[in-house]
Structures are given as structure tokens and as C-alpha cells.
Amino acid sequence: VESLVAVLEANDPYTGGHSIRVAAYVKELALRLNLSPGEVEKVELAAFLHDIGKVGVPSHVLNKPAHFDRKEFDVIREHPVIGYEVLSKIEGMEEIAQVVRHHHERYDGQGYPDGLSGNEIPLGSRILCVADTFDALVTDRIYSKGRPILEALDEISHHSGTQFDPQVVDVLEQYVGKEKNDLMRMSH
């Protein structure tokens, strides 16, 4: 896993730190959703590797300092399938490959690559989708400044039931709320 993440970081330096943060969020959400220890480990591994398919995306597209045009976005949209193809060839990674493949599906069926909806989407992918989006919203990127945590949470909550699984969003709200309260208590 570390070797695969190192390959990805060589092509997209942002993704390494992103993958580590997303894996931490995924682990917390999976634990709060009462997944078994084995399932928590699988979804956490999928989080570390969720963007491995970006090795198949040209670096001039990945590192573009502006939003993607339609053609570039179509290239970026291939990364879950490329990631699936890479990981599914590794013995024992089949379930993790499925989580990676479906981490851009939407709860309402409007996502990609397969247009799955609701519980058709693996739970690990639904968790990963929320964690991935949360980190993308709160982190500075080449083309955008990170948003405050509560603003990012409001954005995700606004798309609960359409883009995101409402149960996972509820758990993120509880998790972020607890962390915020803990930080506020520590600062007094």
C-alpha cells in the first residue's frame, strides 16, 4: 500500500496528504457506523488507495491550476475504473478495488462510473465519498482555497440524500461536532 501511494504521490503531490487525511476520516466514520474491525481495515485501505487510478491521468491535467474543461473532466472521471483495474489484479484486494471503483457514485444514481444508487453502492464507497469530499472542501488546492470546516459540513449536509448517503452524513456531522466541541473545551 505504501508503495502504491508513493507512486501516486510522484504523479500528484497533493494526493498523498489527501489520502492520509481521507483514510483517517474514513476510519472514524466506519467505526461510528459499527463496521467490523475487518471492514474498517478494508475501507481504510481503500481510502489510502482511492486515487491510485490517477496514475493514468496526465500530470498536466492533474496539476492544472484552474477548473477542468469537459474533455479534461472526462479523463479525470476514468480514475476510479483505472484504480479498480490496478487493485483487482492484486490477490486479496478485490473488495477494496470495488470500494475504489464506486467512490464517485452518487446516492441518487447520478455519479460515475456505473450510475449506482442508494444501497447498490458499497457502504465503504459511500463512506469514502463523504470523507473524500469533506477533505477536498477543507483543503487548499491549486485552484481553490479550503473552506472553513462548518461551511464544508453545511455543503455536504445540503447534498445529503442526493450526492451522499444520509446515514454517513449524519455520522460525519456527529464526528465533526464532537471534534469541534472538544477543541473549544481545550481552548478554555
N-C termini distance: 40 Å
Strand percentage, roughly?
under 5%
Number of strands: 0
Mean pLDDT: 88
What string gives the helices and strands in order? HHHHHHHHHH
Rg calc:
16 Å
> What are the segments in which pLDDT stays under 50 over at least 5 consecutive residues?
183-188
Structural class: mainly alpha
Shape: globular
Helical content (DSSP H or I, runs of 4+): 55-70%
Number of helices: 10
Question: Quick one: biggest sheet?
Answer: none
Describe this structure in words.
It is a single chain. With 188 residues, the chain is mainly alpha-helical. It has ten helices and no strands. It has helices spanning 2-11, 13-32, 37-49, 59-62, 70-76, 79-88, 94-101, 123-138, 149-158, 166-187. Helix 2 (13-32) crosses helix 8, helix 3 (37-49) crosses helix 7 and helix 7 packs across helix 8 (123-138). Residues 183-188 have low confidence and may be disordered.
